[in-house]
């Protein structure tokens, strides 16, 4: 899928087995299935997308619209498909949605040690505005709070 854009679709409960496995592969503090179940059915602010090919989830994301703010909760791309534009496709969908819904900013937290992710976010116009001390529960690592201004002119 290197150059072609793949279709994203809304996440559903049938995706959660694969996403739970991907979470464990991709993150040192993976979300549990129940976290995604809440995002799908209990959180009125959440928006979730997946990209799949032949029934296999390749990428997913979750973001929250909180009035004039959009906050990225997670973006994940399966290892074999990283660096092929799927993360960018997810980011583009989040930013488009956030603009369409009149948000002023998009924000996220990222581990201070995750240089690849930080570079990706900076490439997408995010700037580091703060450090959240002891943010991650698995190893007490700090997180950068990164924000992208997007207007909010709706």
What's the multimeric state?
A: single chain
Silhouette: globular
**Tally of alpha and pi helices:** 4
Uncertain runs are none
User: Main β-sheet: number of strands, strand sense, barrel status?
Assistant: 7 strands, mixed
Q: What series of H and E elements makes up the topology? A: EHHEEEHEHEE
What is the rounded Rg?
15 Å
- Would you report the number of β strands? 7
Strand content: 25-35%
Given helix and strand content, the structural type is alpha+beta
Helix content: 25-40%
Q: Could you report the average pLDDT, rounded to the nearest whole number?
A: 93
Structure overview:
By secondary structure, this protein is of the alpha+beta class. Helix content is 29%, strand content 33%. It has four helices and seven strands; from the N terminus they run βααβββαβαββ. It has helices at residues 16-26, 33-41, 86-100, 115-123, and strands spanning 8-10, 46-53, 56-66, 69-77, 105-111, 127-132, 143-149. It has a seven-stranded mixed β-sheet with strand order 1-2-3-4-5-7-6, with helices on both faces. A hairpin with a 2-residue loop joins β2 (46-53) and β3 (56-66). It is globular. The protein starts with 7 loop residues before the first strand and ends in a 5-residue tail after the last strand. The model has no long low-confidence stretch (mean pLDDT 93).
């Amino acid at each position: 899928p290197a150059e072609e854009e793949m279709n994203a679709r809304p996440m559903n409960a049938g995706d959660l087995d694969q996403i739970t496995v991907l979470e464990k592969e991709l993150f040192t503090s993976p979300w549990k299935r129940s976290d995604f179940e809440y995002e799908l059915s209990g959180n009125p602010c959440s928006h979730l997308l997946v990209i799949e090919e032949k029934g296999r989830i390749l990428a997913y994301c979750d973001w929250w619209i909180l009035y004039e703010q959009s906050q990225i909760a997670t973006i994940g791309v399966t290892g074999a498909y990283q660096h092929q534009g799927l993360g960018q496709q997810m980011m583009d969908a989040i930013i488009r949605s956030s603009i369409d819904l009149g948000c002023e900013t998009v924000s996220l937290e990222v581990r201070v040690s995750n240089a690849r992710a930080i570079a990706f976010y900076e490439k997408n116009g995010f700037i580091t505005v703060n450090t959240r001390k002891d943010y991650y529960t698995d190893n007490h690592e700090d997180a950068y709070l990164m924000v992208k201004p997007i207007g909010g002119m709706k």
